[in-house]
């Protein structure tokens, strides 16, 4: 009976922690949305926009319409590839009203421009507003651009909590190549079995390409089964000796 009570307490504490985290995220999101803004001047018309449908109408609407303003930002970023002008329009759109997709696009354009400090700022803001893909992109910036493994792990894990499969793959690779921890590298890749790769593909990578011994792979298997660090688990047999 005592064991059952302890298990119940652990579950209750975990649920409370999740609820507090969700409440904190909601408070941060509401705070961002309710921030008082100083409306920026509308950017000037650019004749390059005439080559694209609806841009004249959007420009006219953009005096007070954040979506129309953001649409022009998309034209600059996706079609014209002028990230500086895209950022100008996304910032103007945000000065009218905060929108999660607009903030995420703003972060993407700072990322493309290699302005990583600003990209991080707006990815974090977008994450609080519900754009969970921001966590994966933050992991990429910290790992690849800034060579900051600690923060890369932190943000990949946040992405994995929201079942981002790409972050599982990246984190497994990071543990193998950068952190030299093949137990965790094995654990993360094993969780991908039947979700991204077959068992044969994962074991071929771990055993033949990465040359990880069977006993280390087995430890990784047990770790992902028994640790809360892995919200996605593989519960089938590995058959390592076959």
Q: Please trace the helix and strand order, writing H or E for each element.
A: HHHHHHHHHHHH
What is the radius of gyration computed over CA atoms, rounded to a whole number of angstroms? 23 Å
Q: Report the count of strand segments.
A: 0
H/I helix tally = 12
Instruction: Give the low-pLDDT segments.
Output: 1-18
Fraction of residues in helices? 55-70%
The largest sheet, given as strand count, sense and whether it forms a barrel, is: none
Mean pLDDT: 89
How does the overall form come out from the CA principal axes?
A: elongated
Distance between the termini: 42 Å
What structural class do helix, strand and pairing data support?
Answer: mainly alpha
Give the strand content: under 5%
How does this structure look, described?
The chain is an all-alpha fold and 242 residues long. It has helices at residues 2-34, 55-61, 66-80, 83-96, 100-112, 116-128, 133-145, 149-161, 165-177, 182-190, 199-209, 214-226. The protein is elongated, with a radius of gyration of 23 Å. The model is unreliable at 1-18 (pLDDT under 50).
Question: How would you summarize this macromolecular structure in one to three sentences?
Answer:
The chain has 242 residues and is mostly helical. The protein contains 12 helices and no strands. It has helices at 2-34, 55-61, 66-80, 83-96, 100-112, 116-128, 133-145, 149-161, 165-177, 182-190, 199-209, 214-226.
Q: What are the defining features of this structure?
A:
242 residues, mainly alpha, 0% strand, elongated
